[in-house]
Amino acid sequence: MEHAKDVANGAQTPQSSGQHTSINKPQDPMDSTKFREAAHAAVDEIINYYDTLPSRRVLSSVEPGYLRSLLPSGPPEDPEPWHEIQKDIESKIMPGLTHWQSPNFMAFFPASSTYPGMLGELYSAAFTAPAFNWLCSPAITELETVVLDWLAKLLNLPDCYLSRGEGGGVIQGSASEAVVTVMVAARERYLREKSEGLEGEAREDKIAHLRGKLVALGSEQAHSSTHKAANIAGTRYRSVPVHLEDDFALTGRGLRKTIEDCKAKGQEPFYLTVSLGTTSTCAVDCFEEIAQVAKDYPSIWIHVDAAYAGAALVCGEFQHHTAHFSAFDSFDMNMHKWLLTNFDASCLYVKRRRDLTDALSITPSYLRNTFSDSGLVTDYRDWQIPLGRRFRAMKIWFVLRTYGISGLKAHIRHHIQLGDLFHGLIKSRSDLFAVLTPPAFALTVITIIPRRQRRQRSSIPADRPDPAHEAYTNDFTPDATNQHLIDANALTKEVYELVNSRGEIFLTSGVVGGVYVIRIVSANPMAEEKYVRRAFDILVKTAEEVLAGKEPVPRENGVEENPLVKMPVPRLG
């Protein structure tokens, strides 16, 4: 219809005119001169944005659907100048942004962004290519191989994960994408091993029979991406229980029991996610114990999810965690969380790259070329689920070179110190806060403590039942324990929601082992001591404000209304 309309309005094609005509290139609304002007203006605005981040409300306060009413119903018919487009960023886009780079952002985990990383994205956009094989742009593939080997050595990963052997690294979009990728590889490896020696229909029947028995495993505190990956891979998922006394870490005994339970039910565990830094509390699973269990079940693929905390491995004091990684099949960490590289830059390593390529390689005729057929080059399309891929190695290269190893270590250690400072501040107010688990990787997880009921002199005669007496309030019974948890959870949630509603800082919450908690992590590039102390002051003020509103109201007979019972609070870290 649009073509017919254009012709009706006088536009002609060589076919419609009946004679040869030259084909004129349409005018570019942004030529190199205009691009230089626009780029300068954009860079100035980005710098101003970062300079003003501390003073901006960190959490967006817009309502769902706010943007549609501010924008036209469709794109403009004619080109618009850059200055008209740019002014809409502050007026229309900025109100709907949550400022992840703000020093007052202490929620989730950080999503780093730095100027070297931005420059890498700029070049990547300029050199844009789908990069599905080496021939698309050899530099894109080869730089990725080199910088991921650099990073593997920096993180103290075993040599089996380096490209010079059977392993190697590949950049994925996210840790969740990495989990899906390796789970598919794990599934195919397991089915291939269990059907070895069979051919034709017998092999197909064996594989079909096994598929219905496959089960992926992860601890109760493993990221939800493992469960989602199992759904995508078409297998069952089962979580392995973890406990507070183990700081919610996955243990060897817990893993072995779950595997044995699955086997007893005729199920076939084929994959396990272990964690270096769980989402809720940054727990570190018991890798040595798990490695011992793995010896008895060599067909189970074990993947180390170190999405956030893996960045700390650049520092020698954390590198003991990698001592048993050679017993595992894959490892992934996100540079875009804590290591100064903007999203997306998830670095996946496999011990045996053929496990990926055997599961994911399909080569139609239009993708064949002499270099790929020779086997002398890497085609990263066979290491991932999508075909095309971006030039993400450029920004990693820029970041590693700009900061150097010393700069990366200083960055991590600075945040560890801020986390220790915050933990110390929390412990200084043990009347208000309890720490659920020891602080880890700059993360502190807290609850608010309900105040004990005020003891007043009873006006009830001694020969009559007193509702305020401990025999009636159940101070030392299991019911008191349960009620305290209910009260503490409700109180912690109220404090958390009030803090976030005011927008001075942004935190996240969660439920860990039935306990409602507030998570605080200050680990983006703009984090400083003054912002951590301010966050503590806000939490103290808000907790005291909420608790003041919870003070029991005395009845006329002197018995307090709705008294809060006492119990041992969650362990202080």
UniProtKB/TrEMBL annotation:
Q: Does the keyword Membrane apply?
A: no
Residue ranges for the region (Disordered) are: 1-32, 456-479
* GO terms for cellular component: cytoplasm
Biological process terms from the Gene Ontology for this record are: amino acid metabolic process; carboxylic acid metabolic process
Q: Where is the composition biased (Polar residues)?
A: 10-25
Cofactor(s) recorded in Swiss-Prot or TrEMBL: pyridoxal 5'-phosphate
Spell out the Pfam families in the cross-references: Pyridoxal_deC
Print the keywords alphabetically: Decarboxylase, Lyase, Pyridoxal phosphate
InterPro entries for this protein: Aromatic_deC (IPR010977), PyrdxlP-dep_de-COase (IPR002129), PyrdxlP-dep_Trfase (IPR015424), PyrdxlP-dep_Trfase_major (IPR015421), PyrdxlP-dep_Trfase_small (IPR015422), Pyridoxal-P_BS (IPR021115)
Where are the coiled-coil regions? none
Q: Which residues carry this modification: N6-(pyridoxal phosphate)lysine?
A: 337
Do the record's keywords include Lyase? yes
Q: Name one GO molecular function term.
A: carboxy-lyase activity
Q: Which family does it belong to?
A: Belongs to the group II decarboxylase family.
What protein am I looking at?
Aromatic-L-amino-acid decarboxylase
Protein species of origin: Cryomyces minteri
